[in-house]
Amino acid sequence: MEKYVIRGGRPLKGTVQVSGAKNAALGIIAASIMTDDPVLIENMPNVNDIGVMLDAIVSMGGSVEKKDAHTYLICGNGVSTEDAEGTDILRRIRAGYYFIGAMLGKNGYACVPLPGGCNIGSRPIDQHIKGFTALGADVRVENGVVTAKVGDTPLHGAHIYFDVVSVGATINVMMAASMADGQTILENVAKEPHIVDAANFLNSMGANIRGAGTDTIRIRGVKKFHKSSYAIIPDQIEAGTFMCMAAMTRGDVIVNNVIPKHLESITAKLREMGNVVFEYDEAVEVIGEAVQRRTDVKTLPYPGFPTDMQPQITTALCLAKGTSIVTESIFESRFKYVDELRLMGANITINGNVAIISGIDRLSGAYMTAPDLRAGAALVMAALAANGQSTVENISYILRGYENFDEKLRGIGGDIVCIDS
Ligand code: UD1
């Protein structure tokens, strides 16, 4: 079991490179098997969840060729979800469900295990099922497996209103609808940058999708997709994590290879706390203010403040003057890491989905366990800002979504080593 040992108290300084967006890549990898032609994907993040998706393609009968650290040639010819052993690997991650939309659209049949992933709430998939059903599929969930198949008639376009704004359901139903007969209109969809990226990728293979990034997506189904070559957008959450780290350690970090527009909600909150944030064409620079102020944060679908940045901003607020309130409105169990922060001396009270944070001057090192991916990164951040030495265990969670995390942090002055115990 690997763990991080961190000696804190040093401001982070320098330039850090952001990798490709994990959550965009997960949808795009699944979509890539919708053509039998090879698809070249660049700027792929080298993280464990991506490795699982690529392994899944191979175990389902497709092929994956690594061209370099971040470039893969994927060929979906031969992929089938009919063999339970081939799809079993998908239980390990959340995004395995994207193969339902991809395979249903392409072959009219998908059989995929129920999604795993971080335990941050109940995470139902009823909106995915609602969408597939409206397109004419018969969807059943039995013994931990989702089976979706079309009957005598092929998938057909439909007008679908999502009852909750869901990233996963938007991408999944968009994929299936892009090969359905006729027009589909998706309303109340998610607008996250990776929705736009997934739509752009599908269009690059020949799909006809308009409106991604707005509340309504219009799709005209096409019969067949063709080969494509595509570069994934930078990771908004990895970038935001480094931004919070720069602020919390009172450092000065240029976060490179980003789209500053995607980071606006994070930039706004860091500025409200008194930090200086410069926006450049493809970078942001965060200069941490010595005395930071309280603020309130509520997580919301994009362009609101991302739930995947909630643990990081809550942690940064532990060292801000005054009482801050963070409201988690997307997932119901996303404050599990707070017990770990308390070990460092943080003063946080949880009341349902609300965290009340009373700022203190210093955190002190502690022995902690990462409860999930983003919370794990937040604990590392707290340790970098704290007095003394900390240990963060269970870092396999962190490695699911952050590429070369400790190496990147050492590159900006973080005193962090990865130890295999
Ligand atoms: C994706 C991201 C995850 C991020 C989340 C919210 C991936 C692989 N994961 O997860 O990192 O935290 O978006 O930005 O991209 N919901 C339903 N029914 C459904 C689907 C969702 O009620 O069928 C609810 C969820 O419980 C949650 C909310 O909708 O309360 C948003 O979930 P959703 O956007 O679907 O999250 P994921 O796609 O699972």
Strand content: 25-35%
Distinct small molecules: uridine-diphosphate-N-acetylglucosamine
Poorly predicted segments? none
Task: Give the spatial strand order of the biggest sheet.
Answer: 23-24-1-25
The coarse overall form would be elongated
Evaluate the radius of gyration. 21 Å
N-to-C terminal Cα separation, in Å?
A: 5 Å
Total DSSP helices? 14
Q: Averaged pLDDT, please? A: 95
Helix-and-strand structural type: alpha/beta
Largest sheet: 4 strands, mixed
Find the count of extended strands (DSSP E, 2+ residues). 25
State the share of residues found in helices, binned by percent. Answer: 25-40%
Question: Short summary of the structure?
Answer:
The chain has 421 residues and is of the alpha/beta class. It is built from 14 helices and 25 strands. 31% of the residues lie in helices and 27% in strands.
